[in-house]
Amino acid sequence: MNYNGGNTTGFASPAGDNLEGRIDLAAMLDLSRPSRYPVRVAGDALASRGIFAGDILIADAASPPAHGKVAVVMLNGAVLVGQLAYRQQQWWLASGVEGTAPIAVAGDDAEIWAVVTGLIRTQV
Question: Domain named Peptidase S24/S26A/S26B/S26C: which ranges (predicted)?
Fold first, then answer.
């Protein structure tokens, strides 16, 4: 939907000089790339990182894992989202919940599936 400030009643808004064109989120987030996926967050384990239940993460399966990045990890059949850390020659996944120990991302049943590159919040 486009907003056209000229179709209002009353006086013209001074903000009308600064109107942008249409915002295409799919293009902005590069969702046409085959490696990019939207992932909806369940739970508030990453609230300390500003990620809340209901948020939509843009996960890129082609992005390499990096220390400190938020990632989607497959672990023993479960899909988890957390912050990556690399230490002791392996990857670890930490939630933002204080007192929760990081989980080693190791073994045949563990895979860093994608790195989070963006966030969409539909509720403010």
Answer: 8-116
